[in-house]
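Re-running the complex after MR caught last week's input typo. The corrected sequence lines follow. Everything else is unchanged.
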Amino acid sequence: DAMVIQNPRYQVTQFGKPVTLSCSQTLNHNVMYWYQQKSSQAPKLLFHYYDKDFNNEADTPDNFQSRRPNTSFCFLDIRSPGLGDAAMYLCATDGGMVTGELFFGEGSRLTVL
Amino acid sequence: KQEVTQIPAALSVPEGENLVLNCSFTDSAIYNLQWFRQDPGKGLTSLLLIQSSQREQTSGRLNASLDKSSGRSTLYIAASQPGDSATYLCAVMHTGNQFYFGTGTSLTVIP
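Corrected-run output:
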């Protein structure tokens, strides 16, 4: 059974039209991450949460925001998508300092027209 | 800052061949190293996790080794199959939940 679930798998939006991507996890992990991955590139960290403590990377554009209403769910909001925001968005959790193992969802592929 | 490199970027082998994928990192103060598989248009699937105190991990036809002092890890795939075709990424973890990824090796196994 999938442990990290992302919806939608595919999202098409128009330039400037807000988008929300969701992530849920059944692992009860405290830490959740949002990564952006473009073709043939390494995943790039946008945000991470330790429990409800929110951390955004210094170079994450203001156009991106995130919410974590409870342990199980996390959302990524893209307020005004541009063509350069077309990418795969990956949600992940980790097992904490006991193992530090990352678990990823299937990703949400964003297309901007 | 940690830098993770995977060479080659792409690899093509005939079915049945044993192969080795490489991952190198510049800062040896890692907590662990993880190998992932990524199929086109999909997320990352964890293959093997090696803690910093370990030398290797095995799962089926996969064996991953870690040499922290030299900043290197290898992923050995035995008797490759067309279904092994995918991109393989490595990632190292530092304390504070910091992960650094390589850009991956794209593997094609030719039937």
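None of the earlier attempt is carried over here. The CA atoms of residues 22 and 74 of chain B lie 5 Å apart. The mean pLDDT of chain B is 95.
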